[in-house]
Amino acid sequence: MKIEKIHHVAYRCKDAKETVEWYGKMLNMDFILAIAEDKVPSTHEPDPYMHLFLDAGDGNVLAFFELPTKPEMGRDPNTPEWVQHIAFKVKDRDTLIEFKEHLEANGVDVLGVTDHSIFHSIYFFDPSGHRVELACPDPEEEAMLARLDDVKWDMLEEWSRTKKAPQHADWLHAKELEK
């Protein structure tokens, strides 16, 4: 018994149409499906919703719910805004820069390029306030992932005991944090 892949990941949005248009314009995602009901199929709760699905590439699906009868959506006040995010892979650094320039030209504030050694990222927010990351692999990604694989269990065990960042892979963000 094994999970095959993620079927879709769903988030709430403030406005379904705005969300479809924004992801289409900003990230070139195709709108692939909409489902709307007045009752929730799983709970049978009376609650109208619009559920939309976007093509996030390579068989990945990003979905959103607009819930017009519910209180305005908010954020978890105890979790920093940089923690919860949706990350998408792009082909290479040239593509990452192209997206950065496209987003900025369309009025989106973009943070980065951030150097994570194994990959490089930009960050921004969608119209509903979800943090989005675009990441491209570093040319040396495979070798660095092997180094990280060698220490992952030791890091996890040390973290579990101490709740302090283990230094097994401190090289990972050394260049970025020296800035």
TrEMBL record:
One Pfam family this chain carries?
Glyoxalase
Give the superkingdom in one word: Bacteria
Q: Which InterPro entries is this protein grouped with?
A: Glyas_Fos-R_dOase_dom (IPR004360), GlyoxalaseI/FosfomycinResist (IPR050383), VOC_core (IPR037523)
Q: Could you tell me which residue ranges the VOC domain spans?
A: 5-137
PANTHER family assigned to the protein according to its UniProt record, in alphabetical order: BLL2330 PROTEIN, GLYOXALASE FAMILY PROTEIN
For this entry, the protein name equals: VOC family protein
